[in-house]
Amino acid sequence: MTKLSRIHYSRHGEAAFFIIAALILLSLLGGGAWYMVQQATEPEEIQIIPFQIVKADFEHVVTEQGEVESSGKVEVLCMVEDPTSGGTEIIWIVEEGTYVKGPQTVKTRGNETPQQLADQHKITLDELQLLNPNLETQIKDSQEITVKSGDLLVTFNKKSLQDARDNQNKTVVSAQSNVTASDNKVTQATISLEEYQKGTFLQEKQLIESEILVQQEKHGRAKDTAKFSSRLAALGFLTAEQLKADLFAVKQAEVDLALAQSRMDTLKQITKKKMEVGFQSDIKAAQAELDAKTAILQQEQSKLDEIEMNLTKCDIYAPDAGQVLYRNTFSSRSARAETVIEAGTRIRYRQNVIDLPNPKLMQVKAKINEGGIRYVRTDQDAVINVGALQGQVIKGKVIKVNQIPEPSISWGSQVKEYGTIIEIINPPETIRSGMTAEVKVLVERKEGVLLIPVQALHEVAGHYFCLVQTQAGLDTREIKIGSSNEKMIVIDTEAAKAAGIPGVKENEILVENLRAHMESLVIPKNLKDADVKSIGKKGETVETPKQQAGRPGASPSDGRQQPRGGGGMIARLDKNGDGKVSQDELPPGMPADAFKQFDKNKDGFIDKQEAAAMSGGGGRSGGGGRPGGAR
Q: Which one, 68, 131, 325, 584, has least CB within 10 Å?
C-alpha cells in the first residue's frame, strides 16, 4: 500500500471514532434530561412529621434591634449668634471618644469677698465673674462657685464677631459724642433760665423802679410848682398862660409815673412768665434730645456687650465630665448625613454639637414594627443583648412607648415603626453609646402549659383543628387555643372542657406538617362550606389552597392546584404557611449570600415572583412542601 493511501485510511478512521463518541454523548445527555424531567414531574411523597405534646414554659417576646444611648447625657449647644446669620464655623473640636473633665467648683462660706476668692484660687476677678455671672448672690447664699472651667471642647471662628465688634465700637463712640452734645444743650438751657431769673429780670426790674422814683419826684415837684403858681396868679404876679403851663406839667408828670408803674406790672406779670416758659421749653427739648441720644447709646452699647458675650461663647468648655460624642444629624427620609460635626462645619445658633453621655444612666432606643407594638407596654421586662459585649445578658425595662410612628424613608418600606425606650438596669462599665443592641421584650410568660407548633393548627370558621396520630390512624381533634407567639400556641384545656370537646392531651402525637396532609382532616358537616385557614407566622391565619379532584392513582398532593412560577419551591420550603420563605426556613447548607441574591426587594423574604425569577420563569409542580417549624 502506498503512503498516500495509508494517510487517507487513517483520516477516515478518526472521523468515524469522533462520530460514534458524539452519538454516545448525546444519548447520555438525552437520557439524563429525560430522567430529570421524570423526577421533576413525579410528586414527592411527604412523610408525617410527628410532634409530641409536652408541658413546657411559654414565652411571648417581641424582638427588635436598637441603639444604646445615655438617658442622662449632657447636650453641648452652640450659643453663638453670628451677625451674618449664616452659622458659626468650627475652627477646632476635641476628638470624638475623648474623656473630658468638668468644671472645678468650691463651696463658699458666705463671708468672703470676690477678690479674696479670686486671690485664693489664683485667677483674676474678671475671670471669676465670667465663670459666675451671679457671683455676689452665690457668695451671699453660701452656694458653690466655679473656680476653673472644664476641658476645652470646641473653638468657633471669631473673625466675623471681631469685625462686628470693631464696627460697633465706632458706633458706640459716635453715640457717646451725641449724648455729650445733648447733655451740654440741657445744661446751657438750664443756665439761660437761671441767668434770666437771677440777672436779666432783676436788672430790668431795678431800672423800672429807678424810673418810677424819678417820675414820682417830678410829679411831686410839678404839683408844688403848680400850687405856688396858683397863689401867685391869684395875687396877679403870674399870667394865666404861665399858670396853665405849670398845671400841664403836673398832668404830664402823673402820666409818666403811671407809665413807669405799668411797665413794672408788665415785667412782673407777663414778661417774666413769657421768658421763663421759653427757657423751660428749651430745657425740655434739650432733655428730650438727651434722652433719645442716651437710649441710642444704650442700644448700641447693648449690641456691643452682646458681641463681646458671643466672643466669650466661641470657646466651649465641658459643663460636666463624660465621653465626647459628636451629634451628627441624618435625614429621616434619605438617611443621608445632613450635618457632620468636624472642623469647617457651620453650626446654627442653639444647634447640638456634642453629647456627653452619663455611663451610669444608659438606655436602648428601639423601633418596634407595627405588628408587634400592640403587645408592648411600659414596665415590661426586657433582655438586652449588645453585640459588642459577647455573652453578657443585660436586664432592662420598658419605660416609654411612642404613640406616633417614626418618620419613614419615602423610597423604603411603608411599614410603620414606633420608637420605644428600654432602660438598662445596672449597665456594665464596658457599654458605650452608639452600640447596636438586640432587645427582647417579654410580653407574656406561662409555666407548665401544653404547646403545639403554629403550623400544626388549622382554622375553620373560628374553630381550630389538628391531626393526632392514633393506633387507628389520623384523628381530627378540635381544640381551644390561648396565647401564641411566632412559633408556638398555648392549648387552653379549661376552655376545651367548658366547650365539651375532647381536645388533646399531654404526650399525644400531632402531625406537625398538617398542610401536607389536609386530605386526612375531617371537617364537621356544618363547617364544610367554610374556608379552611391555617395558622401562619405570628399567629395570623392564612388561606389554604382549595382542593380539586385528583386523577386516578395520583398521590394526595396531586389533588390540589399546583403552583406555577416558583410556587412549587414556596410550597416545599414554607414552614409557617405565610406564603413566602424566610432565611430561617431555608434548607441546611444553603449560603446566606444566595438568599440575599434572590431577595430582590430586600424585605427579608422570597415570594413567588422572586422564586419564579430564580427558577427562570417556571416552577416545578409539587404537592405541597414540609411546613414544619422549630419545636
A: 584
Task: Enter the C-alpha cell of residue 87.
Answer: 452659622
End-to-end alpha carbon distance in the chain = 82
Let me know: does 489 contact 457? Beta carbons within 8 Å: yes
Cell of 81: 449668634
Contacts for 429 with CB less than 8 Å, ≥ 6 apart = 359
Q: Which of 444, 430, 518 is nearest to 474 (CA)?
A: 518
Which range, of 123-137, 221-235, 289-303, 330-344, averages the lowest pLDDT? 330-344
Cα gap 328→325, rounded to integer Å: 9
What residues pair up with 542 in beta bridges, in sequence order? 534
- In the block, residue with C-alpha cell 386530605: 519
Instruction: Determine which of 82-91, 271-280, 385-394, 458-467 has the lowest per-residue pLDDT on average.
Output: 82-91
Residue appearing with cell numbers 472644664 = 150
* Helix or strand (DSSP H, E) at 531: none
Q: Which helix (H) or strand (E) segment is 146 a member of? A: strand 144-148
**Which residues, 6+ apart, have CB-to-CB distance to 348 below 8 Å?**
78, 87
608 pLDDT higher than 80: no
pLDDT band at 511 (very low <50, low <70, confident <90, very high): very high
Q: Which three cell numbers stand for residue 265?
A: 406790672
Nine-digit cell at 232? 401867685
Residues 76 and 353: beta-carbon distance below 8 Å: yes
Chain Cα centroid distance, residue 391: 32
Grid coordinates belonging to 480: 381551644
> C-alpha angle with apex 96: 93 to 102, nearest 5 degrees?
75
Cα–Cα dist 599/605, whole Å: 6
Q: Hey, what amino acid is at 477?
A: R
Measured distance CA(477)–CA(255) in Å, rounded: 145
CA distances from 251 to 213, 217, 220 (A): 17, 13, 11
Beta strands in 380-528 (DSSP E): 381-386, 394-405, 417-424, 436-453, 458-460, 463-470, 473-479, 481-484, 488-491, 509-511
Determine phi and psi for 118, rounding to 5 degrees: -65, -45
Q: How far is CA 320 from CA 127, 152, 317, 338, 559, in A?
A: 19, 11, 9, 27, 74
Task: Provide CB contacts within 8 A for 535, sequence distance 6+.
Answer: 454, 455, 457, 458, 459, 464, 484, 489, 541, 542, 577
**Which H or E run contains 564?**
none
Separation between Cα atoms, residue 364 and residue 499, nearest integer Å: 45
Find out whether 78 and 348 touch, Cβ atoms under 8 Å.
yes
pLDDT score recorded for residue 51: 93
CA pair distance 380, 400, nearest whole angstrom? 10
With cut-offs at 50, 70 and 90, classify the pLDDT of residue 576.
Answer: low
Which single residue is written with the C-alpha cell 442622662?
A: 72
75 vs 446: CA distance, rounded Å = 43
